[in-house]
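quick one: nicotinamide-adenine-dinucleotide bound model?
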Amino acid sequence: MKFAIIGYGGMGNFHREKAFERYNAVVSEDFIETAGIYDISPEREEFAKGLGLHVFSSAEEIWNDKSIDAVVIATPNDAHIPYVLAAAKAGKHVVVEKPAAMNLSELKEMYDAAERAGVKLSPHQNRRWDDDFVTVKNIVDNNLLGKTYLIESRVMGANGIPGAWRKSAAQGGGMMMDWGVHLIDQMLQFVKGKVVSVYCDYSYRQGEEVDDGFNLEVKFDTGLTYRIVVDTNCFVELPRWQIHADDGTLQIDNWRNFKVEGKMLRCLIRHDDQLVGVDAGNGFTKTMAKRRSETVEELPIEVVRGDKTAFYRNFVKAAREGSDTFVTRRDMERVFKVMELAKRSSETREVMKETF
Ligand SMILES: NC(=O)c1ccc[n+]([C@@H]2O[C@H](COP(=O)([O-])OP(=O)(O)OC[C@H]3O[C@@H](n4cnc5c(N)ncnc54)[C@H](O)[C@@H]3O)[C@@H](O)[C@H]2O)c1
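yep, here:
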C-alpha cells in the first residue's frame, strides 16, 4: 500500500521510520511504501529530501495521485479535520494522529465523511499496545489479585509543555488533548462497564493558555473508580500504575524505554493477630503499620509485550478487505465524550453524571 504522510514532524517521521518499518519486517505481502510527504515547513521538506523521500508541493498533488492508497495525517491537531475531509473525498484511506479532532462534533463529521466515501479512518491510538498497559491489563483480566476497585494511571514529567503549538488552545494544545486522549482510550479498553460519572480538575500552574495537567476521576457502573493524573511539573514522580484490588496491590514504576518494573503483593492472611503498632510522625498507629512479611506474598510480574505491528496490520487489512479497524468510531466517540465532560466538570467544579 502506498501511503503519503502529511505533516512530517516528530510523529510523521515516526510513522515512516518506526511504524511502517516494523510492519514491513513482519509481513510477507502488502508492504507499506512511503510515496512521499507534504509539510508546510521548508526545514521539514529539506529534512525529508535528505532522507531520500519525495516531497509533494501541495496536498492536492496527493489527492490527484491515483497510485496513493492512504495518508497519514500528523499535523498539529487543528489541521487534522481539513485534511481528513479532503482525503476521504479523494478516496484515500486515512490514519489520523491523536487526538483525531478538536471536539466530538468534528470527530463525527470526520467519520461521516469517511463512511460516505467508503474509506477507512483510524485515529492512531497506538498506546493500546504499550507494554506497561498490556502487562497491567493482563494481570487484571486474569484476576490475579481478586476484584479491582481502583485503578490509578499517571504520567508525570517535569518539562512543562514542550514546543509551540502544544501551548496554543487554537491549535488543540494542552495535556488533556495530548495525553488525556491516550489514557482515556486505554481506560475504555480496560474497563468493560459503562461510565456513570466524570470529575476533573485541570491545572494551569505554568501560566500557559492550555491545561498543563489534570486530575480525572471516572466512575463505572461496575463500582470501579479509574483515576488519571497528568502532570508536567513533577520532579519526583509517583508510580505509572497502581491497581487496588480486594486481595492485593500492583504497582508499575518504570515504564520508559520498554522497561516494565514494579511490585505486586497479594494478601495471604487478612487479619493479622500479631500486628503491632509503630511510631509514626508525632503519634502512633496500628492501622498504618507495615504488613509483616509472613502475611503477604510477592508475585512475579509477567511482562507482556504489546504488538507494535498490530495497528498497521489491522489497518492495511481493513483497507484492503473492508473489515473493521481496531479503533472504532464508537471507541472514539466515547473517548471524546469523556473529554468533553471532563472540561465541563473542571469549569463548573461539578461531577458530571451521565451513563454511556
Ligand atoms: N500517537 C502518538 O504517540 C503521538 C506522539 C506525538 C504526537 N502525536 C500527534 O501527532 C501530531 C503531530 O505532532 P508532532 O509531535 O509530530 O508535532 P511536530 O510539531 O513535531 O510536527 C508537526 C508537523 O506538521 C507540520 N505542519 C503544521 N501545519 C501543517 C499543515 N497545515 N499542513 C502540513 N503540515 C503542517 C509542521 O511543519 C511540522 O513539521 C499531533 O496530532 C500530535 O498530537 C502523536
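The two ends are 37 Å apart (CA to CA).
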